[in-house]
Design brief:
- There is one protein chain.
- With 236 residues, the protein is of the alpha/beta class.
- The protein has two domains: 2-169, NAD(P)-binding Rossmann-like Domain (Rossmann fold), CATH 3.40.50; 172-236, no CATH class.
- It has helices at 10-21, 33-40, 51-60, 70-75, 97-110, 129-142, 164-169, 185-192; strands at residues 2-6, 25-29, 64-67, 79-82, 117-121, 150-154, 176-179, 209-215, 220-223.
- 33% of the residues lie in helices and 18% in strands.
- Residues 193-236 have low confidence and may be disordered.
- The chain has a six-stranded parallel sheet with strand order 3-2-1-4-5-6, with helices on both faces. The protein has a three-stranded antiparallel sheet with strand order 7-8-9, with helices on one face.
- Helix 5 (97-110) packs parallel to helix 6 (129-142).
- The chain binds nicotinamide-adenine-dinucleotide.
């Protein structure tokens, strides 16, 4: 699969390098030219076990490239992961500035791209962000309708700095929020849950979106349909 990853910080760099190692073609995107230059030189912009060799191998095999050019990244890929920072704002709320900026630039790039495009939110964002913030921005900036010109999934990251590469391959949870009856959700689930990993989750659905987790080791799937609460609780 061809994937663009917006935000080359901890989450973005680890995801980029690990997905490239799994054979995907990955384009890392960031507003920092220093980070883009480092990746294109085969060097990691973050310090983490195993990440230096993974980035070097990904770049060396031509599976991982980096750019500041959003339009190119969108045109060359089918799926975009968003992993920009969401730091605490001075009033204690989550700052959504980078998220809002990045979905606006992705939306504008979608105007000129034929076909549909999948967007996966990996940053930590408040509940309801898809319905009240990111999907409306994407619709406004792209001129497309959610579900027609683009699809959107939530797949929050749970890695821990210090063991993030290991956590990528064996995440404590894999959560995916997707529209009800969205066939493409199985692609997102496949991509976000590497084979052989185990993730357990069960979350109530919210509005028109389903939230599910899957354990690929035991093949158990928790699928929550609209209006029903799943009996199990997420475990840490
Ligand atoms: N680091 C962790 O351990 C961890 C764990 C779980 C979840 N998260 C969440 O994942 C998200 C990313 O965290 P992180 O630690 O990787 O952040 P980070 O600060 O290390 O990296 C964020 C990157 O996004 C880039 N960026 C900002 N605006 C951009 C834009 N418009 N386009 C492209 N790139 C842009 C920044 O330049 C930076 O390189 C946050 O929401 C965080 O809460 C982080």
């Amino acid at each position: 699969m061809r994937i663009s990853i917006f935000g080359a910080g901890y989450v973005g760099t680890v995801s980029s390098a690990c997905l490239a190692a799994l054979g995907h073609e990955v384009v890392a995107v960031d507003v920092s030219s220093d980070k883009i230059d480092l990746i294109n030189q085969g060097r990691s912009p973050v310090v983490e076990d195993e990440i230096d060799s993974l980035v070097a191998q990904g770049v060396g095999r031509g599976k991982l490239t980096a750019t500041m050019d959003v339009a190119t990244a969108i045109t060359r890929t089918e799926v975009s992961f968003i992993s920009v920072g969401t730091p605490s704002a001075p009033d204690g709320r989550v700052s959504m500035k980078a998220v809002e900026e990045v979905v606006a630039t992705i939306g504008r790039a979608l105007r000129d791209k034929p076909g549909t495009h999948a967007i996966v939110m990996r940053s930590t964002v408040p509940p309801g962000t898809a319905e009240t913030c990111t999907i409306p921005i994407l619709e406004r900036e792209s001129g497309r309708k959610f579900g027609e010109g683009f699809t959107y999934y939530s797949n929050p990251e749970f890695l821990r700095e210090g063991s993030s590469v290991k956590d990528f391959y064996a995440p404590p949870f894999t959560l995916i929020g997707a529209p009800i009856d969205d066939d493409a959700a199985s692609d997102a689930r496949h991509l976000c849950t590497p084979p052989g990993t185990c993730s357990r989750s069960a979350f109530p659905c919210r509005g028109k979106r389903q939230v599910f987790g899957e354990c690929l080791s035991c093949r158990e799937t928790c699928l929550c349909q609209r209006g029903r609460r799943h009996s199990r609780r997420a475990r840490g």
